[in-house]
Amino acid sequence: MSFKRITRPVLLGIVGDSASGKSTIAEGITKILGPEKVVSICTDDYHKLNRQQRAQSTITALDPAANYLDIAEQHIQLLRRGQPILKPVYDHVKGEQGKCEYVEPREYVIVEGLLGYGTRKMRDCYDVKVYLEPDEDLRIKWKLRRDTQERGYSKERVLEIVRRRRNDLEKFIQPQRTLADMVVSFYPPGGNNAETGAHLNVRHTLRPTLPHPDLTPVLDVAKKGIRLELARDIDGKPVDVLDIHGDISDDRAKAVEDLLWNLIPEAQHLRGNVGQFRDSKNNTALSHPLALSELLITYHMVKAALGHHAV
Question: Residue 257 has what pLDDT?
Fold first, then answer.
């Protein structure tokens, strides 16, 4: 079968709750594809209300009513057509809008945020849709670390925000899960709930909305580190579930990485460091499950650019 390379930008959507790992995944994929080929925007920049206004109105940032989703929708459509946008910028430290930013599309566009699949027209723009769903206790730990270290919040304030947002999380964010092609869920290994970084397990729920790669050779190489099974998702639809263990050995992980790279020979020149993140001490660390997750998503972006996902 022959495919025709698409001439417009390839769009990846990454959606998930606050501190679910969206920026980490987006940065990792950008490193793989090459920063000169990727531009990222965040739908959280389209907040309609600043922090003070949201507090006064008791509305949260997770509510579509607190966001200019119509403008975000227009901007995503423009980027898909290869046209520039003048994007708003939300300052998470100050809790208010800053100066707008001129953004030109590149070969790949990553759109990450809370409500990236908030409208049908937005969803139709993406070539690949990912939803991040880490273990909830793990996400709260990540949020506490980020918001206290980077945004100047107290621990009590962060926990109050989590509590106040819980209903809107269930109402507005979690329903986007079933709209994704892949659900990526990091979780602690059994008996070690204190783990928050390099040795986390990850589960990929792969929906048949994309032609996922044949992972049989991967399973043969990493028999003790990776498991694949057929299951049914929360909506009852059949899915493939890929589990990657955080204790997979360096040798097995390297072999699996090589196999995944071989699935995208068009991108061999993009080989480089994958799976890097900032640990609890703000040092650069390596996670094999994160690396393999980034490679699987990158596989779909490269194949989409080659026309393999065209309908």
Answer: 85
The pLDDT-based confidence of 103 (bands split at 50, 70, 90) is very high
Confidence at 270, pLDDT banded by 50, 70, 90: low
N-terminal to C-terminal alpha carbon distance within the chain: 14
Q: Read off the tokens for 260.
A: 């995944």
Question: What are the structural domain ranges in the chain?
Answer: 10-37+108-305
Give 71-75 contacts, CB < 8 A, sequence gap 24+: 71/46, 72/43, 72/46, 72/115, 72/118, 72/122, 73/118, 73/119, 73/121, 73/122, 75/41
Closest CA to 15 of 38, 45, 42, 49: 42
What does DSSP say about strands 238-244 and 226-232: parallel, antiparallel, or unpaired? antiparallel
- Between CA 52 and CA 64 the distance in angstroms is 17
- Alpha helices in the chain, H assignment, sequence order: 22-33, 51-57, 69-80, 120-123, 136-149, 155-168, 216-221, 250-263, 288-305
Q: In 3D, which of 70, 66, 61, 32 has the Cα closest to residue 291?
A: 32
Q: Report the alpha-carbon angle 11-298-28, nearest 5.
A: 95
Instruction: Kindly indicate the confidence band of residue 67, based on its pLDDT and cuts at 50, 70 and 90.
Output: very high
If one compares 46 and 286, the residue with the highest pLDDT of the two is 46
Token pair for 301: 């972006």
For domain 10-37+108-305, give the CATH number. 3.40.50
Q: 3-class DSSP state for residue 97?
A: strand
What the block records as the tokens of 283 is 């040092």
Tokens of 47: 């907040």
* Rounded mean pLDDT, 278-305: 89
Q: Contact, 173 vs 16, CB < 8 A? A: yes
Contact of 243 with 203, CB cutoff 8 Å? yes
